[in-house]
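seq/struct pair 1
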Amino acid sequence: MFISALYTAILALLIIYLSIVVILSRRKNKIAFADGGINELIVARSAHANATEYIPITLLLMFGLEFNGGHGVLLHLFGVLFVLGRVVHAQGILKEDIRSRIVGMQLTFSVIIGLALASMTYILMYLFSA
């Protein structure tokens, strides 16, 4: 379970970075909570929220695949592509670049679907080999 733990740590740092972007925007705009209708803060909160929506389920899928004997190379492939997708997407939101957002979500969805299918495959292989 060391591979999934590595990507959990990397993605935790991404969430912290996005949290800091929100905090700095709140301080700059003197907003105590929510977004105050300030576009900069709306965008920052959106980037943070999106990360916290997709990262947990993907990490659960990674841990499950690793626990069920998923190959290390496969896990690293999914991990690298997911981190890349999340970084590209977050920067796309922060810079309001729709193309980056699309690419980031395509990578994100591809990894989630790939992890789900790989997990089901490993589970079925286990069930039919027992």
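seq/struct pair 2
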Amino acid sequence: MSHASTSPGPSAGIPPELSRMADHWGLLVGFGSLTVLLGLAVVLWPGSTLVVLAVFLGIQLLVNGVFKIVSAFAASSVDGGVRALLGLAGALSVIVGLLCLREPMQTVVVLGLLLGAWWVVSGLIDIFAAVLGDVREKAWHIVMGVVSVLAGGFLLVNPELSLTALVIVVAVWLFGYGVIAVIAGFRMRSLSSAHLGATPAPAGA
């Protein structure tokens, strides 16, 4: 007697778009690891100056922008609106990263306001993209967005921070955002492995 073959739907494993992104889980882990390392560099750099801080931030924002743009293209099965949000966030991140590297922009107040505004906008985009997208690990992306919004809001409310205080805020954000990205990347890997292991073999006659 033949058995009708069944294919697992999204509820039986991870969604198709996450399966596709799981092939790139290493990018997310690498991005998160680099972010954490930049946070360490900000804290441990001897005699950290505003120029050093701006350079590290510029590097992180440029990498973040490239990562989001790649994610927008890689997740081809995700809703077009979500992909557009990811692409927009990536483009804005690259622009803000370049502004951080501009020497005339390197004053504590200007850098704090620029960074605060970007974190709020980026965090909101991350939250909206996670809520609108059908991604099982959306909770991690929402947490990353909330972290950015809180850090950005703090900078906007307190624009007159000293360099030391700004370094602390930036380091905390880099650590928090980076660790969450690493955890999310490994979760995507484990979910992908579990999904492949649970895929039923073709039914025989």
